[in-house]
Write a structure and sequence with these properties.
By secondary structure, the chain is mainly α. Helices cover 48% and strands 5% of the residues. The strands form 2 sheets. Strands 1-4 form a two-stranded antiparallel sheet.
Length: 227
């Protein structure tokens, strides 16, 4: 897997996360408690659960005017990145889909992977940095996610990558990433994202690059079509 296509962990390119080790430890303690309470729950799902519980509680006190609703799907027209652990959750969820839907999603994934590999072939990248990330994202701006349904719904909503969970808008969108759209508005979302990458790093050889890559890199399209 080409290291030059490592996409920045935080799309906002923050250099100093507004949390410390104590905050991380408290979040991890809640994740551990969730895992103990539900033995069949995966680490990724536990992280999602705790983050969503905290977000729901915060929005009950102050909704910040967010207007995102099922069926909009505007921010679903771009390239999404995730850890391999998150991709494993997605792939497992695909197995539960009705066969006809699985087939159509598989075709969309195969098409996306082909387009992405062609992009790599025709756009050699010399380094892995925020500038590279933005160029790749810019190229894919406006292109629909393969998991976007015909009615603007997310086909894999329960296991959508954390990056997707961090987009919010205070106005109905008419343009990708407009000024009224916010990414990672809550500190625990940044903690959760970091926790997922840290967990992924534990599974990799020492010195490995951050395993946060564009979705097409994780696709095993032939197998998906056989599910």
């Amino acid at each position: 897997m080409d290291q030059f296509f490592q996409i920045a962990l935080n799309p906002t390119c923050d250099t100093s996360p507004p949390f410390d080790q104590k905050d991380m430890d408290e979040f991890l303690a809640m994740v551990t408690a969730a895992l103990a309470a539900a033995p069949g729950l995966s680490f990724v799902r536990a992280v999602y659960l705790i983050s969503e519980q905290m977000t729901k509680a915060a929005l009950q006190e102050d909704d910040r005017g967010f207007v995102c609703n099922r069926g909009c799907g505007f921010c679903c027209h771009q390239l999404v990145s995730c850890t391999e652990l998150e991709w494993v959750e997605i792939r497992g969820f695909l197995v539960s889909l009705e066969q006809k839907r699985r087939y159509h999603v598989g075709k969309a994934l195969k098409k996306l992977r082909g387009q992405f590999m062609e992009y790599i072939r025709t756009h050699p990248i010399k380094k892995s940095d925020a500038e590279t990330s933005m160029k790749v994202r810019s190229h894919w701006a406006g292109k629909p996610c393969p998991f976007l349904g015909q009615e603007g719904e997310c086909v894999i909503y329960p296991v959508r990558p954390f990056e997707c969970r961090a987009y919010y808008s205070t106005e109905v969108c008419t343009d990708l990433l407009p000024g009224h759209m916010t990414i990672y508005p809550f500190v625990w979302q940044k903690i959760a994202s970091t926790v997922l990458v840290d967990e992924q790093m534990k599974l990799l050889p020492e010195g490995a690059e951050i395993p946060y890559l564009p979705l097409p890199f994780w696709l095993d399209t032939d197998e998906l079509l056989k599910i």
